[in-house]
Amino acid sequence: MKNAGIFFIVIIIFIILVPMNFDATAERDYSEIRVKISTGGSTLRITTKGDYYISEKPEIFIEPGNYTIKKTSNNKVHIKGNQVDEKISNSLTLIPRDEKYTLHLKGTDHGDIDYLGQMQFTSNQGSLQVINQVAFEKYLYGVVAYEMSNSFPLEALKAQAVTARGYAAKRMDGRGDYDLVDTTVHQVYKGYNPRYERAIRAVEETRGQVLQYQGKVIDTFYAASNGGQTEFPGSTWGGGAEKNREFPYLVQKEDPYDLRNPASLTETFYVPKKITEDYGIFDNQEIVRIDTGEGHSLNVRRGPGTTYSSMGQVSRDTTLPYISTEGSWYKIWYQSGEERKEGYVHRDYALKETTEEEKRYQYFSPVLQEMQRRAFEKLREQGMDIENKHDLKLVEITSLKNGKERYPGTGSRSYVTAEGKVLLQYDTPNTNGSGKGDLSEKKEVEIDLVLMRQSPRGTYLLGHPYFNGNLRMRSVEDAEDGYNFVNRRFGHGVGMSQRGAQQMAEEGKGHKEILAFYFDGAKILTLDTTGPTLPEPPEDENDEDNPPGKNFKIISDRYKIEEKTITKIPPKTSVENFFNEVTIKEGSLKLFNAKGEEKTSGSMATGDGVKVLNDDGEEVLTDYRVIILGDINGDGDITIIDLLRLQRYLLGLTDLEGSPLKASDVTRSGDVGILDLLRLQRHLLGMINLTQ
Q: Which residues, including other chains, have CB under 8 Å from residue 537's CB and lie 6 or more apart?
């Protein structure tokens, strides 16, 4: 017994001291996700496309229509529109009564977007914080179509769905107000667009699928293009080998698929070994000299306007051959790869000049310009008396190779310098001391070229005088009769290349094969992402006409009183007759018109609101909307004006929503169409009697 007791104690100590190897993500609820929507300001405009209710005040019925939501001075959230005017504590949550309904939010950072699921608006300092709580799989509808494109091959989209699902799953820990944001800080999310059927299919055909490594759900990073080589996480994000050990499935490897994809962004500057006059700008030529601020670059556009895309960038003092002037733009020649192309620079940042004799050796290739400048600096360091960099004539590049590695010792093909040797000549002074003399003998000069600049703190900067700052993998490659300065990799380069996945799918690879290529040793794991996505709408504990916890009862032998509407009211029914036909127990009724003004006389009309108040008349317990079939304009009668309004709606000339739209469904089909127009017309012609 004594030995057994000691053994038991040892086991307990072992359990306490030795960490168990299990994946906490496996225990999480993956049915829905919370996404912070990027908005700004304290006032937002929404359109509900279906029936909603307010979670914090479920007796308030939100019909389809337009609403304004704003933060008040005392940090409450105020919703107004469509006969609703309510101020709710510091948070308001709109919940659809059916999961198919969408909420249209105007003015997000992504534009005007439709969202499925719940939408929470919270007073947060000087603005409204907006969080979309949505079914996990339906969240992915709004990620896959935008992180890739709906036009991509299905198998590539399926690979994207798995990686996006896994990336999100790792961040669904239930802490804080939200799990992710809707930008590239995490993943781009743009709500719901049913037209993106291929992306939706990719999500559904991989439902629940993520990647796991040794039993744990893994971080499935991805980026647009890796430049032909995947990168170690310890290189991209720091931490080196120790960081790499945290992600053993994220290895560095050659990616021929990314390179083969013509859509992978690549920038190339070609320079010849033999530098002929074809690459130079010589005496008496018109040029454009870039005149930006120190350290700033200027975009070369494909056309005369900022709406045209950029071909590349040029730095201060770059000279470009002039072609013509078009308004506020100079048309110039720009070296792009091995080709010389027409481009445009804005006149506010450029000067038109004519080359002078003392500046007779100028080059339109930005690489040759840098070589000339670096050679000039090197010769000056050696004590040579050369007045101007344009006194140097480049003759031949005798050697050029990659220099310092960005990530030393890792095998990465990303470099920060290039090393070269240039054969050149330079102008010598005339023997009489005036003007230029003969060219010197040819001289070879060793130079270093900067592919990636370094900050004072030692970090590398993507901004560059001529390289595109959005690309981050730079090197020198041999080319026919010359060299290419190459700039690739759009994104961090870790994990899956989206362009590589696209190419693999185009070549017939399936999504599992794509994932196996980019995530070494990882396997598919299927999570349970099913479950309720919406809270149950409020139900009456006493009677089907009453909201929970309220004891009032509204009764009518003549009119039909449903959950949130009152129908079967004949046209031209007076307010007095209406109240004579309605009985309220334990409460009182008040009538309001469509503008929210109290109504005590006249006729009942579509859009009127009947509010049920408590006994002291201070609290609104619930409200109902009056629907009179055929009374579309809300004047209480059925006339030619209603027919014309319905006609304009069907022609797309005007909008109908909320109560007027419901009043248009005179056939009671659940949809408004040409048959409703014909039935309304027959009623006005006296051919039929439109019954309520």
A: 53, 58, 95, 97
Query: Can you tell me the mean pLDDT for 655-671?
Result: 89
- The H-or-E segment that residue 71 falls in is strand 65-71
Our measurement of the distance from residue 298's CA atom to the centroid of its chain's CA atoms, rounded to an integer in Å, reads 26
CA distance 479 to 482: 5
Residues 464, 432 contacting (CB under 8 angstroms): no
**Which ranges of 390-539 does DSSP label H, i.e. alpha helix?**
498-506, 511-518
Structure tokens at 14: 């072992």
SS3 542: coil
Contact 147, 44 (CB under 8 A): no
List 103's β-bridge partners, or say none. Answer: 48, 115
pLDDT at res. 583: 84
Contacts of 62 (CB under 8 A, 6+ apart): 48, 51, 52, 53, 54, 79, 82, 84, 94
**CA–CA distance, 237 with 250 (Å, rounded to integer):** 13
Return the ∠ at Cα 544 (arms to 540 and 550), rounded to 5°: 40
Of residues 686, 604, 607, the one with CA closest to residue 637: 604
Strand order of the sheet with strand 52-54? 57-62, 52-54, 91-96, 118-124, 127-135, 32-37, 180-181
Instruction: Give residue-wise pLDDT tens across range 450-469.
Output: 999 988 888 899 988 888 88
- Backbone φ, ψ for residue 8 (5° rounding): -60, -40
User: How, if at all, do strands 111-115 and 310-315 pair?
Assistant: unpaired
> Which of 299-313, 485-499, 549-563 has the least mean pLDDT?
549-563
User: What is d(CA 447, CA 445) in angstroms, rounded to the nearest whole number?
Assistant: 6
Structure tokens at 218: 């893994």
295 pLDDT above the threshold of 70:
no
Q: Are 505 and 152 in contact (CB under 8 A)?
A: yes
The values of phi and psi at residue 512, to 5°, are: -70, -35
- If DSSP codes are grouped into helix, strand and coil, which group holds residue 497? strand
CA angle 249, 252, 253 (to 5 degrees): 110
Name the pTM for this structure: 0.71
Return the percent helix, strand and coil in the chain, to nearest 5. 20, 35, 45
Q: Which of 589, 660, 588 is nearest to 627 (CA)?
A: 660
Higher pLDDT, 291 or 142: 142
Question: 66-70, 335-339, 408-412 — which is least confidently predicted?
Answer: 335-339
What are the CA-CA distances from residue 541 to residues 545, 547, 550, 551 (Å)? 10, 7, 8, 9
Strand partners, 271: 483
**Lookup: tokens for 671:** 């949809």
Question: Residues 6 or more apart from 644 whose CB is under 8 A from it?
Answer: none
Q: What is the rounded CA–CA span in Å between residue 298 and residue 405? A: 28
Of the ranges 11-20, 73-82, 218-227, 397-406, which one carries the lowest mean pLDDT score?
A: 11-20
Q: What is the pLDDT of residue 364?
A: 78
Task: Check: CB of residue 32 under 8 Å from CB of residue 531.
Answer: yes
Average pLDDT, the chain: 88
- Cα separation of 481 and 501, whole Å? 34
* Cα→Cα distances 661→97, 101, 134, 375, 387, Å: 18, 16, 27, 76, 81
The SS3 of residue 404 is: coil
